[in-house]
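Figure S7 source data.
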Amino acid sequence: MKLFNTLSRSVEQFKPITELKVGIYACGPTVYHYAHIGNMRTYIFQDILTKSFRHFGYCVQHVMNITDVGHLQSDADSGDDKLMLGAARENKTPFEIARFYEDEFFRHSRMLGIRRPDVVCRATEHISDIISMIERLITKGIAYLSAGNVYFNVEKFPSYHELGRLKLKEQQATDRVAHDPLKCNQSDFALWFSTSKYPNQVMKWESPWGSGFPGWHIECSAMASKILGEHVDIHCGGVDHISVHHSNEIAQSESCFGHRWVNYWFHCEFLNIDAEKMSKSKGEFLTVDTLTARNYDPLAFRYLVLGSHYRSPMMFTWKALDSATTALLKLRNRVLAIQKKGTVSGSTHSQHYDTYLDRFFGHLKNDLHTPSAIAELWSVIKADKLNDAERIDLLSVFDKILGIGLFQNDSIDSSEEYAPLIAARNAARSAKNWTEADRIRDLLLKQGIQVKDTKHD
Ligand code: AMP
Ligand code: ZN
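Tokens for the predicted adenosine monophosphate complex:
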């Protein structure tokens, strides 16, 4: 397997720490609101990554945290705890908010065919591990106490900018605008908040530095090392985490352990809407439920996402989702048509079968090149050299990784003739052209095709 490593900014041959084992830590959702479809793009690729490793015979331990405390509005250690904001918004306790949105996150993940990680760990359930790690950093003289808070001193970690490759000035310009008199250097970051400006904080625990709560970055370092050990194969997240969150995680962990912590950093580029990064804090964002409310199959979104390489920024449009819906429907109908001929799995396969199989997995081994893997899928559909049994067998193997529900065809019409109409209706709905959408719905109804009617918004 070859993977792009953000640390070296190059595609590298993956070498596991222990033969045929791979430990993967993924920064999980901050559960103060629904995850948006941009977040889900990142998790879809982590799913493809872990499924590919499993296919290649690795024993995978996939760990994901749940950020349920300590993630402030700003990376500069200012603003409110996002969980407190969620609680205020919905008049609930932060714990209620956290559990509710955690469940919703996994519900959406299931709808997108994302396998639940092997270990899911909540920051609020690892407070003692977090405190122990901070104590180690203080003992080593790397973290310091200032007005009751504990900060990490970035000057004690000379390779602080290795991952982000930002010069100190650029870092300060992008992320650390607010001057904080409690810090020795403005790039220092909080490990523990106790007496600063959070008098109303509900989620707090006793610590050697007073009652308080952990900083977001130390949570990941403490949980990852507790579960996967002090040397980790792969750490994942979105590209927004490179310059601050992951740089801080490296600084804390490597200062604490005294050696390289993570071998490969796997970052997914952003899904954008209208040229802007989709963001939960802006309040307006699309979720998996938004897609289903508009009658889209969440797996059509997965198909759409897999059509762009994970390292390319991707622009979401309803038109693109319509095309993905049509394409997926076409694929499922092809599968159904083959199955209807009474085709069963073949006991022997020709060399052509092996060629397609090798090509498909070759694309995944090539830095998870899913667009080429999808193209290979279409070649299999069209290839004259393959018989139907081989075709079905190949598609079944491919779908174990791609997870686009190629064999989920009980609920769809076996003919492709309605796909353009359904796509046109979806396009009309996206354009809020309700008259046209209703006209097409009635047209479909007349032909015996019922589409679920939803709210006009
Ligand atoms: P959060 O819940 O904000 O901590 O984010 C969860 C994950 O989604 C993190 O790995 C982020 O880096 C990633 N992420 C955030 N916004 C986007 C986006 N627009 N597109 C892709 N990934 C994102
Ligand atoms: Zn993290």
